[in-house]
Amino acid sequence: MRTVPNLAIASANGVDARTRGHFFPPSLRLRPAPVYEVLDLFTGEPVALRFQAERNRLLAPNAPPLRIRRPLTEIIRSYVPRNVAPAVWAELGPFVRRAVEKAQPHTRSQPDVLMSAVAQLAIWSREVGLPLAENVLLHPDTIDRFVIERYSAAAAGTRSNYRSRLRRVGEQVLGHAVYPLQPMPYGRAELLPPYSRREIAALTGWSRGLPTPHMRHNALALLALGLGAGLRADEISRLVGNDVRADGEGTTLHVAGDHPRLVAVIDQWGAIAARLAAGCGTEAVFLSDRERPRKNDISNFVGRLPQADGVRLQVGRLRTTWIVQHLMAGTRFDILVAASGAQGGQIGEYVRYLEPYDLTAAAAALRFPRRWQT
Description:
Blueprint: H1 47-59, H2 72-78, H3 86-103, H4 111-128, H5 134-137, H6 140-150, H7 156-174, H8 197-208, H9 213-229, H10 233-238, E1 244-247, E2 250-255, E3 261-264, H11 267-277, H12 297-303, H13 315-329, H14 333-340, H15 344-348, H16 359-367
C-alpha cells in the first residue's frame, strides 16, 4: 500500500479552486487517502496520477488540449474515414487535413473527432455539388445546412455536437467575425422519465448479478451516484475517491466541473457509494483504471453489459428519478436547485412526472403550509 499525493483540485484550505467564496465545513474538506499505485504497462506512469492530471485540465479555465500519445500531425495525416473509396478520400483528404491542422492548436477537441466531422462535411459537399473551398464549406450557413440535411433524423444533441465541432474549425479558419456569437438552438433533448420502483429493483438486482466483479462494481457505482445523488454522466465519470466523504451523519459528494457543489447522498445509497469509493483515493470511482475521463466512457461501458430484462440503464433517467423523488418528498426547492446543479426553471420541468395529488390533501397543504424549521 502506498500513499499517492492528492492532485485533486483542492486548495490548502480544502476549497475547490472554482468554488472559492463558499464555505465547506472542515469535515467535508478533501484529504489525501492511501491508494494502490497502478502503473501503465508501457510507460510506467501511475495511472491514478495521469487520470487526475487530465481531470484537472478538463476542469481548469482555458485548459490546454488534453495530452495524447501520438503527435497531432501523425493522427491527422493517418486518419481515413470508414466506407469511403480511396479515390474519393484522395480528393477530399487534403482539404480536411488542412482545415483541422489550422484549428487543432486552438481547440481542446481531439483531432480524430474534428477529422471525422470535417470529413463528413466534405463527403456531403461532394454529394450536393458544393466546391471544396474553406470560405464555402466552413461558413456557418453551410454548416447549418449540412447538419440539418445529413442528420435530420438524429437527436437534437447529436446535431448540436456536429455543429459545435465544425464551428470550432470554421471559426479558427475563417475568423471570429464570420461567426455569430450564439447560434440558433436545434431544440432541447427530450426529458427522460424516472424509473419506477419496480424498475429500480430490477436494475439493482441485475447489477448484483453481473458476471464479473468489474461489471458489478461499476454498474452499482452508476446506480449509487445517479439514484443517490443525481449526478450527470460527466460528473460521475470525473468523480474520484477523495471526492466522497462519509461520517456519522452520512455520505457527501464533492462534485467538480461546470456545476461545483456538495451533495448529500440519499441514505439508502450513501453507504454503498462510500464503500465503492473506499481506497480509490485519487483514482476514479467509476472505471478506476482509465487514463482520463472521456465523454463516452459510461455509454461504452453500459453497451458492453448484458442487458437487464425489460429495463435499460440510462444515467439521465437515474438523475430524473433522484429529482422526482425529492420533489415528491417535499425537499425545499432552493435546496434541490443547489444540490442538482441545475437552474430553477429546469427543475420545474420535472413536475410533469410527479404522481397525481389528492384534491383534499392539496387544499389542506395550501391552507396550512408547513413552516421551514431553521
